[in-house]
DUF1850 domain-containing protein (Acetobacter syzygii), 155 residues
Amino acid sequence: MVVAGAALWLGMTPVYAQPQQPQQPQSGPQNLPCGAQDGRLTLKVKELGAMVGYQWGRGTLELGGHTYQIVARGGGMLAVGQAVFQATGCVRNITRPEDFSGTYWTTGGAAVAGHGHGMLLMENAHGVDVHLSEQAQGVLMSWQVARLDMELLPD
């Protein structure tokens, strides 16, 4: 969500670059290098805020030669506006697919005006680390303690 030096949409790290010129083409999230034992997560999340922010979305987790559909939903305080985030990245410290499901708590702030990109780092109670590179589009301002519940959908 965007402005240099702001922390993230649902993240714990500094993120988001300056809004880019409208005539420049926007590429998708940058692929992060993942290790041989890592999973790969692709996620599209929408956020809508009017003091309380709500996030929801879907994606896929590729792990051990299998692709799992996932659903994500969550929320936090102090968000105004709306934005869409597309993210890809690595899922580390995971040995079983069921360890992915859970609540990921984060703190941070974000500001999106147009387009931007950033990084998202989070961890769940099973010790699974998610490292994402993301693209944001919309108009949103937030500073929040938030949670994102992600779960594998049954086949």
About this structure: The chain is about 0% helix and 65% strand. Residues 1-28 have pLDDT under 50 and may be disordered. The first strand starts at residue 39 and ends at 63. The chain has one domain: 39-152.
